TrEMBL record:
<feature type="site" description="Important for substrate specificity; cannot use PPi as phosphoryl donor">
    <location>
        <position position="108"/>
    </location>
</feature>
<keyword id="KW-0963">Cytoplasm</keyword>
<feature type="binding site" description="in other chain">
    <location>
        <begin position="275"/>
        <end position="278"/>
    </location>
    <ligand>
        <name>substrate</name>
    </ligand>
</feature>
<dbReference type="GO" id="GO:0042802">
    <property type="term" value="F:identical protein binding"/>
</dbReference>
<comment type="similarity">
    <text>Belongs to the phosphofructokinase type A (PFKA) family. Mixed-substrate PFK group III subfamily.</text>
</comment>
<dbReference type="GO" id="GO:0047334">
    <property type="term" value="F:diphosphate-fructose-6-phosphate 1-phosphotransferase activity"/>
</dbReference>
<dbReference type="GO" id="GO:0006002">
    <property type="term" value="P:fructose 6-phosphate metabolic process"/>
</dbReference>
<protein>
    <recommendedName>
        <fullName>ATP-dependent 6-phosphofructokinase</fullName>
        <ecNumber>2.7.1.11</ecNumber>
    </recommendedName>
</protein>
<dbReference type="InterPro" id="IPR000023">
    <property type="entry name" value="Phosphofructokinase_dom"/>
</dbReference>
<comment type="function">
    <text>Catalyzes the phosphorylation of D-fructose 6-phosphate to fructose 1,6-bisphosphate by ATP, the first committing step of glycolysis.</text>
</comment>
<dbReference type="GO" id="GO:0061621">
    <property type="term" value="P:canonical glycolysis"/>
</dbReference>
<dbReference type="GO" id="GO:0005945">
    <property type="term" value="C:6-phosphofructokinase complex"/>
</dbReference>
<dbReference type="InterPro" id="IPR015912">
    <property type="entry name" value="Phosphofructokinase_CS"/>
</dbReference>
<dbReference type="GO" id="GO:0046872">
    <property type="term" value="F:metal ion binding"/>
</dbReference>
<keyword id="KW-0547">Nucleotide-binding</keyword>
<comment type="subunit">
    <text>Homodimer or homotetramer.</text>
</comment>
<dbReference type="InterPro" id="IPR012829">
    <property type="entry name" value="Phosphofructokinase_III"/>
</dbReference>
Length: 345
């Protein structure tokens, strides 16, 4: 069997470990021939590929980034995903002699994996995203690393904030789901955590910050980039569009900081963590999860379990139907937010 491996969407720590797990299991155990397409669908459409064998994946598990590269290039030439687009992909699959795909990515990538399988092009998904917003799996690889980086930033900001009696506002990633903010805020002991799912008013935020000041402490506020103030405020955007044609988010901390200072009289500073959350070596947890995911995907390909995704369920990797993983994001439930909110201020 000849399998194409392709990464799509934003990079996520652990992608190299997932590739290594899939290749070692697929090539060494099942006898597959595996090829990797460079820079996602760009490499597929332009026939830019490399062989994947034991030598190609030697020593890559601890490395950040991804050896194949990734991009937000669309899989479908017209962008519609109609029969003509599927025909283009099928013709190239035949030209490359491929039997199936292993697709590493988030919600969009897994949606494509389901579409391909539905049209007779076998595919299996490997779930990666630092946002942890993909349904069908308890955790995605890359999330733990992003939370660890954000938690370290909180620890560092707290010391400088305490030194100057300032309120520090840290912006982390999270367009529609606030998992990074929720977990990092809890791990770092933030006094306020703001997520996209649950708007809060500036009056409430200021009340929490003042409560902290009245106890002789300095506030640390963690905010996800997709957070919006209560009352119908829009998300904070920067100029331009992202790779999916959506408005580019970012800068909500820089909006909140002066508002907090205005309402409380406390000097407030903003820090935007940005792509630091995606960079560097993956944590041990993400390396293990990604490796197990790659192994499970290769085993599923050998068993012909097409149209599935290797998701973490409890402490085991289960092959989840792609239909359960796509179509809706896994957002922070109200109970989890309220659990944290009770300790704000």
């Amino acid at each position: 069997m000849r399998i194409g491996v392709l990464c799509s969407g934003g990079d996520s720590p652990g992608m190299n470990a997932a590739i290594r797990g899939a290749v070692l299991r697929g090539v060494e155990v099942h006898g597959f021939e595996m090829v990797g397409f460079m820079d996602g669908w760009r490499g597929f459409h332009e026939d830019d590929r490399i062989p994947l064998d034991r030598a190609a994946v030697r020593g890559i598990s601890p490395l950040g980034g991804v050896i194949l590269g990734t991009s937000r290039v669309q899989p479908f030439v017209s962008g519609r995903g109609d029969e003509a687009d599927i025909r283009v992909i099928r013709d190239r699959v035949d030209a490359y002699g491929l039997d199936a795909f292993l697709l590493i990515g988030g919600n969009g990538t897994q949606t494509v994996a389901q579409m391909l399988t539905d049209h007779g092009i076998p595919a299996i998904g490997l779930p990666k995203t630092i946002d942890n917003d993909l349904s069908g799996t308890d955790y995605t690889f890359g999330f733990d690393t992003a939370v660890s980086i954000a938690s370290e930033a909180i620890d560092r900001l707290r010391t400088t904030g305490d030194s100057h009696r300032r309120c520090m506002v840290l912006e982390v990633m999270g367009r529609d789901a606030g998992w990074i903010a929720l977990h990092a805020g809890m791990a770092g002991g933030a006094q306020v955590t703001l997520v996209p799912e649950f708007p809060e008013s500036i009056e409430q935020i200021s009340e929490w910050v003042l409560s902290v000041r009245d106890r002789g402490r300095s506030s640390l506020v963690v905010v996800a980039e997709g957070f919006r103030l209560a009352g119908g405020a829009a998300q904070t955007t920067r100029d331009g569009l992202d790779g999916f044609g959506r408005k580019r988010l970012g800068g909500v901390a820089e909006v909140l900081a002066p508002l907090i200072e205005q309402h409380t009289g406390i000097e407030t500073r903003a820090t935007v963590l940005g792509h630091v959350q995606r960079g560097g070596s993956p944590t041990a947890f993400d390396r293990v999860l990604a490796t197990r995911t790659g192994i499970a995907a290769a085993d599923a390909a050998h068993a012909g379990q097409w149209g599935t995704m290797a998701g973490l369920r409890g402490d085991r990797i289960a092959m989840v139907p792609l239909a359960e993983a796509v179509g809706h994001l896994k957002t922070v439930p109200e109970a989890r937010y309220e659990e944290a909110r009770l300790n704000f201020g």
